[in-house]
Amino acid sequence: MSPAEEEKSLPLPERWPRASKFALSACAAAVAELVTFPLDLTKTRLQMQGEAAERRGGAAAGRALPHRGMLRTALAIAQEEGVRKLWQGATPAVYRHIVYTGVRMVTYEHLRDSVLGRAEGESFPLWKAVVGGMSAGAIGQFFASPTDLVKVQMQMEGKRKLEGKPLRFWGMHHAFLKILSEGGVRGLWAGWVPNVQRAALVNMGDLTTYDSVKHFLLLNTTLVDNSVTHCVSSACSGLVAAVLETPADVVKTRIMNQPRDKQGRGLLYKSSVDCLIQTVQGEGFMSLYKGFVPTWMRMAPWSLVFWLTYEQIRQMCGVTSF
Question: Which of 131, 160, 213, 245 has the maximum number of C-beta atoms within 10 A of its C-beta?
Answer without folding.
Answer: 245
